[in-house]
Amino acid sequence: MRFVSGRLSRTRALMAAACGTAAVLAPCLAGGSFAAAAPSSPDVAGGAGAVITVTTAEVGAPGNRAVGVVPFTDAVYRSCADAPSGARGCLMVGGVAKPYQIGEYEVTVDQWVAFLNTADPTGSDPHGLYDDTESSSAWPKYGQINFSAGARPGRHYSVAFPEWADKPYGFATFLRAARFVNSLYNGRVISKSTSQSGDFRYVSYRVQLSPRTETGMYDMADPKAVRAHNTGFVVPSQDEWIKAAYYDPRGGGTYDYWKYPTNPGVFGDGDATAPHSTVLNPLTGHVTNGSTQPLASYHADGQPAPSWCPGEVSRADCATVNPLGLDPIAYAALYQGSLSTVGQARSTSPWGTFDQGGNAVEWTDTITPPPLGSSSVRVWRRLHGGISNASAYQMWPSAVGLQPQDNVFFSHTYPWLGMRIGVVGDLTPCSP
Length: 432
Description:
The chain has helices at 12-19, 21-25, 109-119, 174-186, 238-246, 315-320, 328-334, 408-413; strands spanning 43-44, 50-59, 67-69, 91-93, 100-103, 145-147, 157-159, 188-197, 200-208, 232-234, 276-277, 295-296, 361-368, 380-384, 401-404, 417-418, 422-424. By secondary structure, the protein is α+β, with helices and mostly antiparallel strands.
């Protein structure tokens, strides 16, 4: 399957931007030290919103050059003026004027469940944050999250099986991603710490999530919602996402851009310099060939797609049961690749992020016209990154896919739709 082609403040006002308005009025915690590591399990502070840790990679080199791309072609250009005559839809991408941060990893199932129980403590789901197709009973192979109507408030949602906790959340729409960001924005930044690994710098935020999802960084009443503040958590823009994945400040690649988020590659050689494909433990989804570098979770030509199914599920159910009513042969052909444990492919982008190539395709907040020749009243946004069920070309910088931000059918039937958090401005902990 494919997505459509065409990715402390010193005043009370600044405190509101960094910590959320509610946080200014309530006591805030401070201090603590958290290393840049895989996302931790959420906990609950004082019976309020769940507390999660979000780790970001710092992206510098402000004002870097953009590069020209023609959608889904194997090339980059100094400018669109250098693109071949007759090439349609050339875009200049990847230039970002200011420093920013982007998630070291994709948002995990564990983090998303913490958000669901904070944003929807009654289980009534007024904003469409969950669908039955996400459950392990409806979709044994891909169901990540179970819902229990009879659970006590704030406990209706749970990780379907432990193996899913550290996998990317895979049923995102842009609207879901924006609401997650609003929960972070309106929450309390309890602590912030920095660390370094080689050339890469990371920032870890411990945040108590807020149940307020309709305003914050994005006004959900506005179908074309854009960032409302200069400081805080965001869904990365297309340029921010591409720069973090491909732009090499040390001058590697072509015009300083890599072909893959895992290695420079060679533009024009098809998939000859593509990363290796992950091999997964069939019962856990952990990567078993991490020493084979560069590496990404995608469907390499002539090889089986990386795949697994929770050990708690029977092999027969894993191979046949699906919420779409597909017969086993059609189901096996369409649904091959699985999401792998975040970070275990080990290959990093030029800025130290993991899994921007393969695994789950990721939303950006960049609004774009609908596909050429069509008209639509719906709002379309860019996605990037390829998936574990797609070929290498989906990982190129020119893979500027797009989808309606509210494509409910797509999110019901496409279990590889993910998100990654960004941070803009100087986001700092609240003062008590």
